[in-house]
Amino acid sequence: MIVYCSDLKNDQDMIQALGSVAVPIPIPHGDVAFIGIDDDGEPLRVCIERKRIGDLASCVLTNRYLNQAQLAKEAGFQVFCLIVEGRYRPAPADGLLEIPGYDRERDRAGWKPIVPAITFSRFDQYITELEYLASIVVKHTENVRETAAVVKALWAFYQKSPDDHQSLKVFYKPKPPGVLLSKPSFIRRVASELPNVGWERSKVIAGRFPTIKAMVDADVGDWQELDGIGKKTAERIVRALRGGI
Questions:
Q1: Which has more confidence, 139 or 183?
Q2: How far is 165 from 167, CA to CA, in rounded Å?
Q3: What is 3-163's CATH number?
Q4: How confident is the model at residue 63 (pLDDT cuts 50, 70, 90)?
Q5: Least confident span in 148-157, 176-185, 211-220
Q6: Residue of 87, 99, 82 whose CA lies nearest to 139
Q7: Class of the domain covering 170-241
């Protein structure tokens, strides 16, 4: 296992927590980067950004993290993970985002609001937006040791193509997202069951092939002409449609 880590001063604690698996280098995007495997068994470039609560809260106001992710995408990264590090909570009195700090009035450890102030609900909504709208994998840790453990778990996960993960292989398929106002075509329902296709990509397939027979008769080259389908996925689809031939 090898991951590349930012060699900046504020990432030294993470390098130490990762131990021998970390290779400190100047990386232009993110705090950790490594190579995984995509749907077709091809190299997958993964970019992990680690942000403490105050830093991420400022991103809600400046959009800085999203800009960082966009630059990383332009540089060729394909998967983006955000690790939110630190404890936080909504203030009991006003719902502002708080982190652990020194309580001067009681002369003891307590909680203090983030500066500039932001509500807990807005902060949490921002995380939901990153997950749902930007397809960014968001993890939460309380300290750098947990962050290192999450980095290792992400590395292990992305070393397998989706077909090789067994935990969620069950005897049913989830319903298509959203509310459908019309019943999907039989062709699209069949297409959604093909290897590495899913509901969203099935729409492209249904638009390309007018009949199930046309799908069965199509060769690997025909399938590769469709957006998002590489050679290995095309080969799996052809084998599935032809009964493993």
A1: 139
A2: 6
A3: 3.40.50.10130
A4: confident
A5: 176-185
A6: 82
A7: mainly alpha
